[in-house]
Amino acid sequence: MMAGRTAIRGALAAFFVAGTVAKADAANAFRQLKGREITAKFAGQEFTDEVHFAEVFKRDGSLSAISMGKRKTGKWRVVGDELCRSHEGDEQRCYQVWVAGTKVQLRQPGISVTEDGVLQKPAARN
To answer: Which residue among 66, 96, 105, 116 is the one 20 to 30 A from 29 at the CA level?
Structure first.
């Protein structure tokens, strides 16, 4: 009888752990944002990897960026379900926006490299 209870307790514990892991994986799963969600999420926010770059997506469609110590300006807008941005002197590039919790990935269809970062209130920078 005691062995049966131990087996049941072990099975319940395994079930609980598996359920917790599944919930954590679901919470960390990336999902693609639609156009309106992109605008709502990015307007007035800073996209940064917290080390190499930071871009402030101003509500008026302008963009101010600092990358590897160099400052740039540009423009941003949402076209369909993609975030499009251009920095001074560069052509416009458009990205799918994928989020998981606070993590954000900018993905270009057909290109395996992503731009990873977080969205936050703009930080004061010198």
So the answer is: 66
Same domain, 61 and 11: no
Please give the model's pTM, rounded to 2 decimal places: 0.76
Query: Which pLDDT band, with edges at 50, 70 and 90, does 118 fall under?
Result: very high
E strand intervals along the chain: 31-32, 45-48, 53-57, 62-67, 70-79, 82-87, 93-100, 103-107, 114-120
Same domain, 39 and 26: no
Same domain (yes/no): 102, 82: yes
Q: Taking the CA of residue 21 as centre, how many other CA atoms within 13 Å lie in the half-sphere pointing to its CB?
A: 6
